[in-house]
Design goal:
The protein is an alpha+beta fold. The protein has one helix spanning 79-120; strands at residues 2-6, 22-27, 30-38, 53-62, 65-75.
Length: 122
């Protein structure tokens, strides 16, 4: 379940972006920043970038630390069907990636604390 809260959350629930191509969603308790930009040749899309191709990137940060960034391409011509599905995939995968990274950090911190306790115990 997700909810767009920037820009204009009271308008329809479709893909709405601010003038910089950004939107913010709340997804399962996390804030996901979504950035949409036109695809370029540097994106190395199969068959090359078409004029209606976009790259959508969802990023989750906590405490000013980026935990996950997930990118997908979409074609705005197929936007009515493809874009909402792509946004959902990005939101799900960004939150999953953030949760995975936090679990890894917690495990590493626990290992460091355990090693420190073991080294200081007589």
């Amino acid at each position: 379940m997700h909810q767009r809260f920037h820009p204009n959350p009271d308008l329809d629930h479709g893909l709405r972006l601010d003038l910089d191509g950004r939107a913010r969603y709340r997804h399962t308790g996390f804030t996901v920043e979504l950035h949409v930009r036109h695809a370029t040749a540097d994106d190395h899309l199969p068959g090359g970038a078409e004029p209606d191709d976009v790259v959508m990137t969802g990023t989750v940060s906590l405490c000013s630390v980026e935990l996950a960034a997930v990118s997908r391409t979409a074609n705005l011509v197929d936007g009515y069907y493809l874009v909402p599905e792509t946004v959902n995939e990005i939101l799900d995968e960004a939150v999953t990636g953030a949760r995975r990274k936090v679990a890894q950090l917690n495990a590493r911190l626990a290992a460091i604390d355990h090693a420190l306790e073991t080294a200081t115990t007589p």
